[in-house]
């Protein structure tokens, strides 16, 4: 699996039924994530108990589905991630259990002179 550096990961805020396969999840991408399922981005779906994650993506020739089930613990809550696309590095960290905080942009600076 090769993921382009420009690829973004979009996490679904709503918890989904993990019995959904490629077809069921691909139908959820547009209404829940406001993205096109064949865009090449990663679409992350979290199970009701937050122990299971499925990632759907289009790899030029068809859909691929990646699945992970935790034996202990739960994935961090996806609510804070749904407002933006994650980088692949942020997605890896989140899958390892690191809670990704919302991004806070640098405050604007009004400069009067060059120091």
Automatic annotation (TrEMBL):
Query: Which InterPro entries has this protein been placed in?
Result: Transposase_IS66_Orf2
User: Pfam families this protein is in?
Assistant: TnpB_IS66
**Domain of life of the organism encoding this protein:** Bacteria
Name-wise, this protein is IS66 family insertion sequence element accessory protein TnpB
Q: Name its species.
A: Pseudoduganella aquatica
């Amino acid at each position: 699996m090769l993921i382009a550096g420009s690829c973004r990961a979009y996490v679904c805020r709503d918890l989904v039924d993990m019995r959904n396969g490629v077809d069921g999840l691909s139908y959820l991408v547009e209404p829940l994530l406001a993205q096109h399922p064949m865009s090449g981005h990663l679409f992350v779906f979290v199970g009701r108990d937050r122990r299971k994650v499925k990632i759907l993506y289009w790899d030029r020739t068809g859909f691929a589905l990646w699945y992970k089930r935790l034996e202990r613990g739960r994935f961090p809550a996806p609510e804070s991630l749904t407002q933006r696309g994650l980088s692949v590095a942020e997605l890896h960290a989140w899958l390892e259990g690191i809670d990704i905080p919302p991004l806070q942009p640098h405050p604007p600076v009004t400069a009067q002179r060059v120091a």
